[in-house]
């Protein structure tokens, strides 16, 4: 497999590669050396980081855009492979009550991904109010995330312990996996952590609209994972994101009404 430096994309790419190997009757998926997954079996497929033998026949690629290969993906197939991949990760040592993810980096740079508008600030504050945790752990790659100070002050005004975490991408990923209640942001990073968590029993997510089905925890996915899901929506949330100051001001305006739809186990 080709290296994907985005951990979330890599998780789904490995799941796709396993499915493709099953379809083609191949027995092995060769992971990049920096993969977060440990070698071992996923059903009948062996994951390895060993060097490919000279003369071996195979397919090389990233495998993230699986549809381009002409194979369909059902929720059941995806869930089966992703749940099996949990066992190819290190055992979870931590357990946090409530963890939220604030995506930074590329979404605030020039020419950001147009479909990755940040959830409004009110989404995170409403999630905290909805769950009333004793402690909030905020995972973000930037101390300068514009929501961070507001969320911190809100927690402290409510007597909630607040911890900001900025580690390596892999350390942050495993911190998200540690959550019993996980509040995810846009993109694949936090979503893939939820798929691969053995701790998570409650998930809060902002509905970004028409994104790939594995990135939104709709009822069929909630049932497969056995977790309670609260899906938030807000009127007027931008469907295209340009990263302008005016867009950010609107997201932080505190005028965004948050509505929740809940399903799955209580």
Q: How would you summarize this macromolecular structure in one to three sentences?
A:
The protein is of the alpha/beta class. The protein is 30% helix and 19% strand. The chain is built from eight helices and ten strands.
Present the secondary structure layout.
Blueprint: H1 7-24, E1 28-30, E2 40-42, E3 45-48, H2 75-85, E4 96-102, H3 121-131, E5 135-140, H4 148-157, E6 161-165, H5 169-177, E7 179-183, H6 189-195, E8 202-206, H7 219-225, E9 228-234, H8 245-251, E10 258-263
Protein described:
This protein has helices spanning 7-24, 75-85, 121-131, 148-157, 169-177, 189-195, 219-225, 245-251, and strands at residues 28-30, 40-42, 45-48, 96-102, 135-140, 161-165, 179-183, 202-206, 228-234, 258-263. The chain is α/β, with parallel strands linked by helices. It has a seven-stranded mixed beta sheet, sandwiched between helices. The protein is globular and about 60 Å long.
């Amino acid at each position: 497999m080709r290296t994907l430096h985005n951990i979330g994309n890599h998780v789904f790419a490995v799941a796709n590669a396993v499915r493709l190997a099953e379809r083609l009757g191949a027995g092995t998926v060769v992971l990049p050396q920096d993969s977060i997954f440990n070698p071992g079996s996923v059903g009948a497929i062996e994951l390895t980081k060993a060097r490919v033998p000279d003369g071996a026949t195979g397919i090389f690629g990233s495998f993230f855009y699986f549809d381009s290969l002409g194979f369909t993906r059902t929720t059941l197939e995806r869930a089966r492979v992703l749940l099996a991949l949990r066992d190819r990760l290190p055992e979870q040592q931590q357990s946090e009550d409530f963890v939220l993810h604030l995506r930074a980096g590329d979404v605030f740079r020039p020419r950001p991904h147009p479909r990755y508008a940040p959830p409004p600030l009110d989404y995170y504050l409403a999630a905290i109010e909805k769950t009333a945790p004793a402690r909030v752990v905020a995972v973000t790659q930037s101390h300068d995330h514009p929501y961070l100070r507001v969320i911190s002050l809100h927690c402290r005004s409510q007597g909630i312990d607040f911890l900001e975490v900025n580690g390596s991408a892999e350390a942050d990923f495993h911190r998200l996996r540690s959550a019993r209640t996980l509040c995810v942001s846009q993109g694949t990073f936090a979503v893939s952590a939820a798929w691969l968590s053995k701790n998570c029993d409650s998930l809060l997510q902002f509905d970004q609209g028409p994104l790939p089905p594995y990135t939104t925890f709709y009822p069929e996915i909630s049932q497969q994972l056995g977790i309670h899901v609260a899906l938030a929506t807000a009127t007027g949330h931008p469907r295209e994101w340009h990263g302008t100051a005016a867009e950010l001001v609107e997201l932080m305006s505190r005028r965004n009404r948050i509505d929740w739809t809940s399903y799955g186990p209580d």
